[in-house]
Amino acid sequence: MRAFELKEYSGPDGLTLTDVAAPQPSADEVVLQVAAIGVNYPDLLMTRGQYQNKPDLPAIPGCEVAGTVISAPTGSGWTTGDRAAAFVWEGGYAEQVTIPLNSIAPIPESVSFEFAAGMVVNYHTVHFALARRGRVAAGETVLVMGAGGGIGTAALQVAKGLGARVIAGVANENQIATATAAGAAETIVLEQGFAARLRELTEGVGVDVVLDPLGDWLFDEAIRGLAPEGRLLVIGFAAGNIPAVKVNRLLLRNISVVGVAFGAFLELDSSLMREQATSLNKMIAAGTVNPQISLHYPFDELPTALHRLGRGEIDGKAVVSGPSSS
Predict the structure, then answer these.
(1) Sign of torsion, CA 273 274 275 276?
(2) Which residues of the chain have a pLDDT value below 50?
(3) Does this model's pTM top 0.90?
């Protein structure tokens, strides 16, 4: 089968399109024919050797796929021909991929493979962050930082689907259109001192929840913008430095910093992905969830998509056609 193998940790240029043996599933794995692939920051980090999962080379990256079931274990509930989307730690940049049973969810008939491939990592991550780790309640106010990117646009929609008031935090004026298209009614630019703007928008109280995929100096400013008993949800550090927090600030204001690692938690809760898919599918049906897919690439141009992601040139989400579709 065709696949992109990572030959060296030199970024997307380390990927080579080649023919490899088809994967051999274990007794608790589904084999998926890949129809579409999501382009994600963790994949970019893996090509650089900077991700938490650093496999021996050569390896096939790719963590987000959608396609058709080729084979499945007896009694698993999956049959040949089922449409599914999945998260994997690696292996998605290929014609076929093996999927653990706790990492796969059905795709509604109304949803395309490209739509589904644009949802798995971002939407399941932010649903896990907001609903489970942040326990967002209807009527609370949520600031979504990085609201012009894939995680951010997903979080805007899921927070709205949970009944929250949502404020989109973007890097510059150019990203306001992307956040607005994703459903944001209120937008701020994340510049020095943005906590004061948050207090203005919330009658001096601050926001109940901040979803932070950025880190760096923005983390400290977001802490200042939290209301008493507020929660800051740590998704990642796309802005650069990993921040530190002075815990006396948490104590004095009764606020919390909460870690979010969706992929790692799948090993602890085998029902998580299916349960979240049920909730997200309701949001799709209601029209609240609609991935902001801004770019489509054929499979052969997958490294180009990763390069553009690394340069910050992708607003919303990019998806790639599966090898058999190219």
Answers:
(1) positive
(2) none
(3) no
